[in-house]
Amino acid sequence: PRHTHASSCIQAEGMLGATHGGTINQKRRRVVVFIVAALLVLVSTLVLIQTDSRVERCLRVWWMRLWLPTSRCTALAGFSAVDESPIRSPLLVADHLIGYAAGKVFLEVGTRNGDISACVARFARRTISAEFEPHYCEKLRERGAGLLDVRCGDFQHLRFSDLPEVPDIFFWWPSTATLNNEAFLLHTRRQLWEMGLGAGRRVVIAFDLKYHEDVAHLPVMLARYPAHERHAVRFAEYSRHGSAFRAWGTFELVHFFMDPEQ
Asked: How far does CA 5 lie from the centroid of its chain?
C-alpha cells in the first residue's frame, strides 16, 4: 500500500507538471502572436505612410492630440466651431487669449465666422469684432447676439473714441501679414497714444509657423517693435478635408506692448 501511494503521488505530480507546462506554452504562444500582429500593423502603417501623405498627417494629428490639451471652448454650453484650422486660428489660441482678456475689453480684427471671439466673449467683459466682409458681419450679428459688438468695415477707419469702451487686448491673424500687421499695429498705437490710454494695453498678433509669409514677416516685426513678449501655442485639430498640413503645428503669439515710449 505504501508503494502504491507513492506511485500515485508521482503520477499526480507529473500530471500537474504537464498542465503547468502547457499553460506556460499557451501564454508564450499568445505573446508571440501579439508581437507578430503588432509588427504586421506597424509594417502596414509604414507602407501606407510612404504611399499616402494623408495617412501620415492623420496619424500625426492623432498622436499629438493624445498629449496636447483640448480647448476649453469645446466644453462651453452652446459653443460649436464653424470654421476649421487653418481657415481660422486654432481654438487653443482662444485659450491663450482668455488668460489676458478675462474681465477686460477684447477686440478681434478679421473675425470671419467668429469662433475665437465667440469663445473669448464668454470670459471678457466686452468683446468687439472688427470685420471687413459684410456677409460675415451678418453672420456674426446672428451668432453673437448679446455677446459680440460687431463693427463692420475697414479696421483702419475704426475710431476707438466711437466705441463704448476702449479695448484692453487687440488680436488679429490676417491673411496677408506684410500688408496688415504693421498697418494695424500703427493704427492701434496712434489712437491709444492720442487718447493717453496706451499703458497696460497690448496687441497680440498670431504667426503660423507653417505659413511662409508669416514666417518671413515675424522677424521683421520683432526687430521693428522690440517691446514685446513671445508665446508658442502647439495644437492639433482634425479637418473634415483630410487633416490639412496646417491643421497641426505651432502658432507663435507675439504680444506687442502699447505703453508710450519713454
From this structure: 75
Q: CB-based contacts of 154: which residues, under 8 Å, 6+ apart?
A: 132
Which cell is 195 given? 487718447
The DSSP H or E segment spanning 205 is strand 202-208
How many angstroms separate the CA atoms of 153 and 113, rounded?
15
pLDDT for res 145 = 78
Class of residue 177 by CB neighbours under 10 A (exposed 0-12, middle 13-18, buried 19+): buried
**CB neighbour list of residue 153: distance below 8 Å, 6 or more residues apart:** 130, 132
Q: How far apart are CA 92 and CA 99, in angstroms?
A: 11
Are the beta carbons of 181 and 205 closer than 8 angstroms? yes
d(CA 223, CA 199): 21
DSSP 8-class letter at 259: P
Residue 164 has what DSSP assignment? S
Q: 11 is written with which cell numbers?
A: 503520477
Q: Name 180's Cβ contacts closer than 8 Å, sequence gap at least 6.
A: 172, 174
Across the chain, which has 262 residues, the per-10-residue mean pLDDT values are: 50 52 74 84 60 55 67 94 91 98 98 96 98 95 90 97 97 96 98 97 97 97 98 85 73 97 76
Helical packing angle, 177-194 and 212-224, nearest 10°: 30
Q: Record the pTM.
A: 0.77
DSSP H helices, the chain, are 2-51, 53-67, 91-101, 115-120, 134-143, 177-194, 212-224
